[in-house]
Structure formats: C-alpha cells, structure tokens
Protein 1
Amino acid sequence: MATLILVRHGRSTANTAGVLAGRTPGVGLDERGAAQAAALPGRLAGIPLAAAVSSPLERCQETLRPLLDARPGLPLHIDERISECDYGDWSGRKLAELADEPLMKIVQAHASAAAFPGGESMRAMQHRAVEAVRDWNARIEAEHGEDAVYAMCSHGDIIKSVVADALGLHLDLFQRIHVDPCSVTVIRYTRLRPFLVRLGDTGDLAGFAPREGGGGDAGTAEVGGGAGAP
C-alpha cells in the first residue's frame, strides 16, 4: 500500500505566542515557519510524490506552498478531516492559562475521556483523521500503485493520533509522541500492518525515494532518522 509522509505545519504565530490556535482563522506561519516551509522542497527532493493533501487551515497551506511551487504538476487536495482539533472554547487562549484547567490533566493523561467545551472529543479527532488516512491510502494506491508516496500536511495532535493508531497505541498514550513544527513523519502501510519508519524528522529524507526496481519488505527496510523529543 501507499507510503504516507506526514508534515506538521511550520512554526506559526500562535506557536510563538504560546496560544492554542485551534481553528482560529488568520493564523499563519511566523518568519521561522516560512523558512522551514521554504526548505521543504529540498528535503523532499528525489521523492516522486503522487499527491499532496492539506488541512484547510492557512498555516498548513502556507507550509505546502513552496513545495507546490517547486512541483507545478503536483495535485493539492484539501481535506477537512485532517483539520486541527476543534478545541471549542479553548481556542485562542494562552497555553499557560490553560495549564491550570482541570481538563488539561485529562487531556494529558486520559485523552480518550477528554472533550473540549464547545468543541470535539479527542476520540472523534482521532477517528476522523485515521479515516482520512485510510481513505487516501486506498485512493493513492488505486490511482498510482502500491509503491506510491504522498504527502499530508496537518497539525500536531492530528499527526500524533495517526501515529498512535499506526503503532497500535491506545489514545491515552498519544501524548508520549512528539512532532516538531515542519517535522516529517513517515508511515508505510501494508496489508497486515503499518510501519512507522520515521518520526518527527527535521533532516534529510532522500532515503525514502523508491528503490530502483521497487519491492522490498517494509518491515525490514533499514531507515535512519531521529525521533522527536519532548
């Protein structure tokens, strides 16, 4: 099946300000985030992407823009299912302020029981994101073959929840996963199981270009790269 390259959006103005942006409109990349986005085409050079899929939020589309400019023929698809978690009444509030909310302890330690006031539950967030990935895997494979690679630009909690699903981790453990802004996470999906082959990588990705002749066991492929740290 397809190989998924998950890109977290570059650093945003909300990241810099310590604000939980959620789906607040008008949150774009800051100067560093724009530089991270500008470097993305070089990091993905040599990987023949079949498609790019993006959250509808501005910061994700800004992150993909340099890649799309560098590859004029690369189709872009917007999918609401990989939009940021709907944090409801928490959206736009300072993270330092939210740290004192009783719900924050549940979000951190028992995410499957967390539902944001005026927003959605973390279970619903993971469900829609995983469904989107599974649907895109099937579509990309049907249109481009089982060795196809595609990119998806989304948000930290969305990516962490997809990684937890790929690893067979309960959602309550997903806060143990960390992905930096504009980091890349790679998941190879097969008939039997997914393989997490890179997590939160911020370096070179040339090793993910398909091998000449194709094939290879995704479970035994040797891949390098570091994992994101808290």
Note: The first strand starts at residue 3 and ends at 8.
Protein 2
Amino acid sequence: MKRYKTIIIDDERLAREEVKRALEKHKEFEIIAEASHVDEAITLIEDLQPDLLFLDIHMPGKSGFDLLEELTNVPDVVFTTAYDQYAVKAFEMNALDYLVKPLRDERFSKTIEKVKEELSNRVKLEPTTLPMHQKIFIKDGEKCHFIPLTDIYFIESLENYARLYFGSDKAMIKRSLNLLAEKLDPKVFFRVNRSQMINIHYIKKIHPYFNNKLQIILTTGEKVEVSSRQSVKFKNWNSL
C-alpha cells in the first residue's frame, strides 16, 4: 500500500487532534509531524519533504498562504479553516481541497478520496540530475534550440512553464521551475527565490540588500534579488 507522508499545521492543538483522528481511518496517510506556527512548519517541510499538508489558513503572525509563499518546493495542500471566505484564494493556490472546521466525516472522506486519486496519478521524475555537458532540445514556437546546460544562465517561472536564458536567446519550456530544480545539478543551479534560478558560474557580483537579502549581478547584466531564506542558504552553501 502506498503511504503518503503528511504534516498537520494548525495553531490550535485541538484542531490538530481533530485532523489526526479523522486520518486514523485512512492508513495510506502517515503523519510524520505537526506544527503550531509557520516558521516551525517551514523547517519541518524542508527537512522531511512531505507529500501532503493539512494546513490551517488563519494563524497568528503568518498565515497558511504566507507559508506557501516562503517555500521553495511546495507539497500538495488541503486547507483547513473556520472561515469560508478564503475558499477562492485557496483554490487559486492550487490546493487539492478546502475543509471548513469543525470537520465532518462525510466531507473529510470525500476529500481523502480526491487526494488519493490526485497523488496516485502523479508521475514522479527520476531523482537523478542531468550531467552538465548534456544538451537539451527546446522547441519554442517556430524556433528550435539544441543547447548544453552549461549555456543556461538564468531561469524564471511562468506558472507551469519556465523561460530559459542562454547566450543572446531565451525560450519557453513546458516545465515548472520545481520540476527543473529536480533535474538540474544543485551544485550549479541555485534557486534564488520562488520564481527564479541562476547558474552560479555566471555570477559577477554579490551585494548585501534590504532585510538581510542579497542581490546577485550576473555576467550577462541581470540583477537578481535573493529571498531572505535563500540568502541564508546561499551564504552557508558558499562558506568554507
């Protein structure tokens, strides 16, 4: 039986217990952790790499939406909340489903069936990265490109597409930035924020920026702002 690693995030202990009790009937879901606030949840998610989050929206300090904005790789999400006015925004964030507290058994079971169907249909990429000398073929409209990965210096996200910059050209590819991040060598391609990735071999200058962030200037002229969290990672990643 396929098991899905699950984290429950809610500032109220009783609400977390309610989700745990509801999940007891569904053995496919393995609860690997729970968190009471966003900062704790971010650390757990990045360390444990769950398949699914049961995520409260309205929490003190930072909301469930704020949490997703701070993550580099976002798991699948079922939102839970006592307020139904967040429903539209929840689905704009591509949530699998949306539950209003207190949870109802029948509604929860329907959510679980929906989640299982979605997760079982996902095709996982092989966890191997492409060698940097490899060339990739891109067809962008009427143009075709056959380029080595070493020539790609900058990638930006456009929802389910990504735009690759290489030489004096750029091209669209029907791959999300998350999928590309799984395939590209993490020693070379660094995710500077949720929507951009750079090839570190093209870094020209690094400057301190606002709120402990970094600004990176590439040899090609682009200026890239590194998020606060990724700035910390970048400093640690490049320290002796």
Note: The radius of gyration is 20 Å.
Protein 3
Amino acid sequence: MIRNTASSWGGVARALHWVIGPTILVMIAFGWWMNHIPARPDRFFYRSIHADIGYVLLVLLLVRMAWRLINPTPALPADTPRWLATIARANQWGLDLVTLVVIMLGWAHSGAHTPDYSSWFGFFHVPQFTSPDKETARAWEDRHIFFAYVLLALAVLHIGAAVWHHRVKRDDVALRMVRGAG
C-alpha cells in the first residue's frame, strides 16, 4: 500500500518519516557537536556536510508536505479526547513547519557566511538568497540554532506520544508508522 488510508500510513509516508525523522535528530546532534568542538581547520568541512544534508532534507520535507496534502491522515482512536487530537495535529504540522524554518535559516546563514556552504557535495552550487555579511551570518545562525532546539522539543513530544500510545494506551497508533496496517 503506497497511499495513506483513513486508518493507516502508506509506504511513501512511512519511508519519508523514517528517513527524515532520524536524520533531523542526527543533524541536531551533529550541529551541537560542531558548535562545541574547539575551532579546527576542518570545521568548514563539517559545516559543509551539515549544509549538504540540510539541502537534501529540504527537498524531502517538501515532498513529504505535498504528500500529506494529497493523502488522508489516519484517524486517531475514537476515544481520543478532542483537546489531545488537536495537540497531536498541531505537533505534526509544527514538526514540518519548524523543520522548514530551521532549514531556511540554515540556508540563509550559508549565503551570509564567507565562504558560503553552497557547494553540494562538490557536484554543483546551490543558489544562495542572502549576501555575505559577518554580522548577518551570525544572526541567521543564532536563529537557526534556536529553532533547532524548538524542533528538538517538538520531536521529543512526538516520540513521547508514540511511546505513550504503544506502552500505556496499547493501541496501534505508533505501530501504524512502523508496519502501516491499523
């Protein structure tokens, strides 16, 4: 089953979830590590890899958001309180929107940084939409980091909800993202 149904996630949604979600967590950890290692000559290399993966995530995220718009979202169990369903929906969209904000802020930082991080794994240059400026680059980076922490908080809430559904409620909500069937 490729498409979502009213009761389960399809193969495309599950694949995008399991590629994007763990990659975001790795990128946050990698970003934290990059900002906490002592200044080294190879720091630009690590930041370039971080940016390259960020560009890939942007494409995958846009595909995921488009896929969500043209596919149904599986319903929560009938006994889910309305307030909890609202929080779940807000968290789902918040994850996508904040991920988009984090990526766009990182991309803005890339163009403002000298040298920029536009070379995509050495194959081609990603167009930049900001101009080189040291102070502006620092401001973009500060916002990028702040929203990465917001994204981490939303991800922790999302993971916590999945564990709660699986271990406490013992329903199939979390399993639908693993095996698809509701």
Note: Helices lie at 11-36, 43-70, 82-112, 134-169, 173-179.
